[in-house]
């Protein structure tokens, strides 16, 4: 089920989700290749993600955008096309590199449309015909796209740190600023400590673990927090951490 929060980007409602629906013109069952979302007529439409503009004009018949009215198509870092259709006007040009959040044009009702809205579509291919027919669920794609990029940015900002237990190589943590973080459950269980969770925060042997971070589904805590909770010695030599029991 698509749970992408369109309201976060200023859209007040979804008028037609991705998937099968009755065509608003002839009533026949067809696959809706994108999602229709609404702000207000001529409201600014912004790029969900950065990329290169590969199409910025009225969609001509046979081009892959026939009936879509004014379309801006952006090729993102995955090589996918993020398509913004039925725009009232266009504010970017082909070949332009746009940033996340940059205005692309205004919401409209050009092309085969029953009212002012944004038809947003994602295609897994950029050619031929701008990937026509290779549409995927746009809400699901944006959710995974942003998740992957957030994880990538976290990795760029953090330095990986090897962690040893009792002088034996065990796992990896990371250094962020001046604080070294280690995986909570892996180390606790290896050292025979008891981990509990109350729905908000974790505790080790009854000691609250503060300052934790959730990354890729794993909880990391400042490695010094283990000293009090498990009564171990933490040694940092500038390159790796050694936790000695």
From TrEMBL:
Residues 32-127 form the M23ase beta-sheet core domain. Gene3D superfamilies: Glucose Permease (Domain IIA) (2.70.70.10). InterPro entries: Cell_wall_metabolism_enzyme, Dup_hybrid_motif, M23ase_b-sheet_dom, Mao_N_sf. Transmembrane segments: none annotated. This is Peptidoglycan DD-metalloendopeptidase family protein.
